Amino acid sequence: MKWKLTLRFLRSVMTIVVIVGIVNAILFLSLFVIKVNNNNFGTEEASAETFSRTFSQYVELQAGKPVVNEEGLKKLQEMSAWVQFLNDQGEQAAAFYTPKELKTEYSPIEIVQMYKYKELDARTTVFVSEAQNFSYFLGINNPKIGRYVMTYDYAKIFKDVNVFLFIFLIVDVLIVILIGFLFGKKLTAPLHTLIEGIQQLRERRFKKMPTPKGVYEDVFRNMNELSEKLDRHEEERKRLDQMREEWISNVSHDMKTPLASIQGYAEFINDSATDLTAQELQEYTSIIKSKSMYMKDLLDDLNLTTRLRNHQLSLQFEEVNLVQFLREITIELLNDPTFGERQIEFEANMVKAVHKVDKKLLKRAILNFIYNALVHNDENVVVKIRVETISPHTQITISDNGQGIPAKDLEQVFERYYRGTNTTSKHGTGLGMAIARDIIWAHEGNLDLTSDENTNTGTTITILL
C-alpha cells in the first residue's frame, strides 16, 4: 500500500514535468529558428545592421562622387561611425570620419576579410553595402556591437538537436524521479501513518497518533478524537460486560447455599410427608420461607450495590433537613421492638442543615451503619448519632463504645460479604456496609471509619456531606 501511493504520486509528477519539458523545448527551438531566420535578436547589432543597410538614403552624387548630406553626417556622429566609399577597382572614392590607419585601396579578398572579421581593431565592427553605384564600408566604433559568421550543416544540427532532446529528457526524468521520490515520501508518510491508525481502529487498538503540522493536521486531529471516543465506548462496553459477568457470578454463588437448603427440605417433606408431625412440617416450611426471603433480599442488595458501583442508578434528590431527618430515624429505631431497649442517643449543634439527597437511599445507609453497631456488639453498647456543621460541610458521626474491629479486618469492612472475625452473627446478606459506602459516594460525600479493638472507644463512622 505504501509503495502504491508513492508510485502513484511519482507517476503524476513525472507526467506533468515531462509534458512541460517537451513544450518548453519546442518553444525554445521555435523561437531560436525564428530569430535566426529573421537575424533579429533585439540587440544593438541588429539596429547597427539596419542603419548600415539604409545609410544609402543619406548619400548623394556631386561631380560624380558620393557625398553624405548633413543628416547623414549627424547620424554618423551619433553612432560613432565612419563611412568609406569604394569604386569598382576597390579604390577610395570618398570618406567621412574614417580613422587614419584605414586603407584607401582594397583587393576583393581584403574586402571580404574586412566584412567577416574585425581587421581594423577589436572595437570596430564593419558593415558593407551599396549607394549610388558605389560600395561602402560603414564602421561603427562600439565594443558592445558584434557580428559572428556561422557555418552550419542542417543534417548535423538536426542530429545534435535529437541528441540534445534525448539528453534533456533523460536528465529531466532523473530529476523528476529524485525530487518526486523525496517529496512523495515526505507527503505520503502521513498517509501511511493514517492508514496504520485506521487498521488499529479496526483491530480495536485505540492508540493516539502524533499530529503533524500542515495539510494533514485536521485529519489527524479528527482521527485522534475518533480514537478517543471509540476507546471510551470500548471501555464502557467492557465495564458493562464485566458488570454483567460479576452480577451473574455473584448471584450464582450466593444462591447455592439457600437453594440447597430449600431443595433439601422440600425433598424431605415430599419423601416423608405422611410421617411428619404438624409441628415439624411448620418448622421445615418456615425454614424454606426464611431462605426464600433471604434470596429475595440478596437479589435486591446485589442489584443495588452493582448499580451503585457502576453509576447505573438514578438518585431522586430532594431538599432534606438532615437534623430533622436523623432525629426521625433515631425515634423510629427506639420504637422498634427489636431495638427499643437499646441505648441510642442523638445530638445536634444546630437546628437546620438542608442538603439535596436521595432520602430513601441515605436512610438505608445510616440504618446500615447503626444496625452494624447494634448487631455486632452486646446489649449494653451505646450508639451515638451526632450531626454538626463543619464549614462548608455537614458532618454526621455514628459512634459506639463496643468491642471495636480488629486491625486486620479494617481494610475489608466495606467489601462485599464481609463479616468480622469478632462476631458469630449471620444477620443480613453481608452487603450492608458496602451498600452504605456506595450510597455515600453516590452523594459525592466522604466516609471515614476508625476503630480500636477491646477498648472503650469502639468504632466511629464519620460522614461529610
Termini, distance in Å? 59 Å
Strand order within the widest sheet?
8-10-11-13-12
Q: Largest sheet, if any?
A: 5 strands, mixed
H/E series: HHEEHEEHEEHHHEHEEHEEHEE
Which stretches are low in confidence, meaning pLDDT under 50 for 5 or more residues running?
A: 40-46, 417-426
Morphology: rod-shaped
Question: Roughly what is the average pLDDT, rounded to an integer?
Answer: 79
Q: What count of helical segments does DSSP give?
A: 10
- Radius of gyration, whole Å: 57 Å
Helix content: 40-55%
Count the E strands. Answer: 13
Class from secondary-structure proportions: alpha+beta
Strand content: 15-25%
Oligomer: single chain
Key features of this structure:
single chain, 465 residues, alpha+beta, 5-stranded mixed β-sheet, 10 helices
Description:
By secondary structure, the protein is an alpha+beta fold. The protein has helices at residues 2-38, 44-53, 70-78, 108-116, 154-202, 217-271, 278-309, 322-334, 359-375, 432-442, and strands spanning 59-62, 65-68, 81-86, 92-96, 124-131, 134-141, 317-321, 343-348, 354-358, 382-390, 393-400, 446-451, 459-464. The strands form four sheets. Strands 8-10-11-13-12 form a five-stranded mixed β-sheet, covered by helices on one side. Strand 12 and strand 13 (459-464) form a beta hairpin. Helix 6 runs antiparallel to helix 7. The two termini are 59 Å apart.
